[in-house]
Every structure is written in C-alpha cells, then in structure tokens.
Amino acid sequence: MSDPDFTTLHQRMIAEIAAKTIFSTMHLGKAALNPRVMEALSKVPRHAFVPIELRPYAYVDTPLPIGYGKTISQPFIVAVMTDLLDVRPTDTVLEIGTGLGYQSAILSELAKQVYSIELIEELARQARQRLARQGHANVEVRIGNGCQGWPEHAPFDRVIVTAAPELIPPALIYQLKPGGRMVIPAGLPESQQLLLVQKDEEGTVSTREIFQVLFSLLEEGEPD
Hints:
Catalyzes the methyl esterification of L-isoaspartyl residues in peptides and proteins that result from spontaneous decomposition of normal L-aspartyl and L-asparaginyl residues. It plays a role in the repair and/or degradation of damaged proteins. The protein is built from seven helices and nine strands; from the N terminus they run αααββαβαβαββαβββ.
C-alpha cells in the first residue's frame, strides 16, 4: 500500500477512536480524549509497528498478532490507556511490555523519557529498530522481567502495563512516585478489568475500575 492510502486509513482510525470515546462516556467520565493524546495518535504511523504482512490491517481498530503469542493492542484501547495515564511533558514513564514499540512511540510524543521492558528478546530488538527509524530517541528498551520494574530509574511519574497480571505487581506500586498514576489490566483471564491506580502525595494507593478488557497474560520470566 502507498503512503497516501495509509494516510486516509490513519485518519479514519482517529475518527473511529473519537466516536468510540463518545459511546464510552459512562465508563470514562468524558466524551473526548485529551487533545495531546489524539495528536500523538495522529502523528505515530501504526503501520510502522506491525509485521509487514499485516500492514494493510494496521489501521483497523483491532489487536493484531506480532508473534510469540503477543499482540499489538487495539488502537482504541491504546488511546484510552494513554489518556488515563495523563502524561505530562516533564514525566518519566515506565512501560511494561514493549511489543514492537507502538505504545512506546505514543508515549515518546508525550513524555520526557520512556523506559520500556520487554520479556521477549526478538520483540525488544525489533522495537528498538522501529523506534529508532521513527526518531523516538527518548525511549530506552530493556529485555527483562517487567514484574520487577526498573529500579535503577525509579521512581516513575507514570507506569503503564500492556499485559495482564492477576494482581498488580508490588514492585510497580513501589516504583510509582507519590502523585503518580498507573494504568494496568488485571484479574483472572475471564474477568480482567482495566484499572487506574493512583498514589497520593502521602503514598496512599487507590484504584478505579474503568471497564472489562482482555489482554494477554503478563509473564514473569526469570528474575532479573
């Protein structure tokens, strides 16, 4: 497909996300996502972060397989999770589950620095290449156990997790700054909820359920 074809499909994807947001007002508490989030989604070419054979489907609002039993998330879910995270230009963000780097690229447009952890070495290698080709120099990708976070760069203003544990890993809560936010799917496979986790300035943690989701399971791998 040519770049003009992708441009039209990309614009349709953004319009579909806006429409689905209106229908999700009851869950989200608003009818439109942050303009900064929508701008980032408009700037990052999703087709650059999917396997080449799936590029014709890059702008369909659906998850797509990326190998190793993993997927790139549905664009609407990426949009909602990014909006809930409320990333500021000065923030340092921890991402668990790099995949091929699409969510990392969106975060790169919004944050000062992104640290992303991927368990599968080949996906991490490809993500680094794809992010570099798109000029996202403020993303650092590491191969490792996401459940342990990234202590060397903690604490983080924001944490986002793109695979679902049954329970929120304690290390991720610990590495979240007071005043910080985490967006994470969690729960048993048949009853996962997208959660917004907030830590107030005194360190008290609260959670809010957004809506039911279905993510691949967060694998712990070997301890780092």
